[in-house]
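Case study.
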Amino acid sequence: MPAGSHRFRTETRRLLDIVVNSLYSHPDVFLRELVSNASDALDRLRFEALTDPGLAAGGSEPEILVRPDAASGTLTVSDNGIGMTADELSRNLGTIAGSGTGRFLEGADPASAPELIGRFGVGFYSAFMVAGRVEVVSRRAGSDEPAARWESDGRESFTVEEAERTGSGTDVILHLKDGMEEYLDPDRLGGIVRAYSDYLPHPVRLAMPDGPGGGALNSGTPLWLTPEKDVRDGGYEDFYRHLSGSPDEPFSHLSCHAEGAVEFHALLFIPSKRPFEALMPDWHPGIDLYSRRIRILQACPDLLPNWLRFVGGVVESPDLPLNISREMLQQSQASRTIGRALTRKVLDWLARLSGGDGDGYASFFTEFGDFLKEGLLSDAENRDEIATLLMTWTASDPDRPVLVKDLPSDGPGGGSLYYVTGPDRKSLAASPHLEAARRAGAEVLLLDGPLDGLIAPVLSSVLGRRLIALDREEADADLSDEEKRKRDEASARLSGLLEFMKDSLGGIVGDVRVSTRLDRSPCVVVPGRNDPGDAFRGMMKAMRREIDEVPGILEINPDHGLTRYMMELFETSRSDGRLARCVRLVHQTGLILAGSPPTDPASFAEDVSAAVLEGH
Ligand code: ADP
Ligand code: MG
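After joint prediction, the assembly is written out as follows.
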């Protein structure tokens, strides 16, 4: 981009407007954002200097200066970090980083936008909450290009031009708005830095216009190396915001330390909400890796198993080589040992959380349960422990999940667990499949997650309990002796009718049987025992593979009035067409009760009208 004046793109203007007017609840956070960017710039320079020692040569100690100047009404935040070229200035400060961000903003609902927007890299724009004009003078380390100045009032446009600066780094100069003079007060500034940025590993100093820089305002000990008892209230929350760019508090944090085969300090976070980007397949907040106070890799995805990708944070270990690349990390013995030990700690952490009281864990599970289920299916090594962390919704309270491991094993089904699968637990709770279980007082699991159809068999083997699908064809093994006796007796009594129904429906049903599970409903269509299930079918469809449709089984309620009526027609006038129509209606009703549409709505409507008009 050439020097000169440039208009912000529409989405950037929109974003600026939201950031300045509604994103942050308190203007103080602008300083946290600018200091945080400066700290990142110092980290990046230290990292690049590992492979290009020339970069560090001119090197003064890394530091961040906060310089209030009452005479000019400006507040400057400076760093001697990596700096930016003119091009980088317009790219980084003139446009929104991710291309997806712009697209998202176009369709965003302004009411929910602020919360989501905090998750993008927009911290810099918070400067415009307190400044009517912002100048950024920067020089890129290791580049021959001259320094450059970016300037904007944060409304329509920005300019970029050549400038002077000795040494690499960046000055962000805020021309404070009227009424923002408090941000010139050294005590006030010191308070904000201590409140929000105490943990940063680089010194933040206050520089008075004509005095030397004073001592560091922050303690300078990274939070992950600080014993938990020494961390002030809110310290972890602020660090999480710094790390994640999210305005929220985390759901939980884990500060831990290991010594032995490997040594590391870790500070990990679980977000309180599943970010909407989590839908994207490559979503991975990742873990920042440090060795000897130097950040060697950012957002590293390989330390924890993939299903734990909702956990973010920092890990520092002296056992990690400083000049490690992502590829080397996967090969490195040290990182694998750290990864395993860390995974242990995360599993223990989750186990502790799951044992806590209140709704905390349930709300965590509502947000991140799908990841745990993915773990159950993909992480054989930790499968048993993951199973103990799973929750499920049940028919007795579809709003409140319970731990699967805590489900009572002395109910009517003995150690067996009943379940139904479907897209939505509210309608599952009302399904006719549950009638008999409910009558018997047995608990029924409502499995409505995308992976639930696949996890049932795995859960069963891990828990050592039988999981019986109520929305599948009944198997002898699932029935008590009493139920079997009742069913066999009814099947014998109705055998002629059952045969007739099967013949008259033809290939659209696999079989017609007597059910023991129905109470008020006349009938239901269930998938056959060999049907692979909707979850599997969905997966195959996603992989563009064809699989055969398996005709369902029509189960009828032997005690229902409709069955008695069909039996009567069967015995007196089976060939006058009324029975065949009634059978078709029963089949379609069974489909509807199972949550499927009727196979032929037009003839279904005809049959209904005819039956009503004839008074049957
Ligand atoms: P984020 O920090 O989340 O990426 P920001 O809006 O805070 O988002 O900053 C945008 C980008 O501008 C940064 O990613 C970085 O590339 C660049 N930047 C901001 N401040 C500095 C600085 N002091 N030194 C170097 N680069 C910076
Ligand atoms: Mg930032």
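Observations recorded in class. The radius of gyration is 33 Å. Residues 303 and 553 are 48 Å apart (CA to CA). We will return to this complex in the next lecture.
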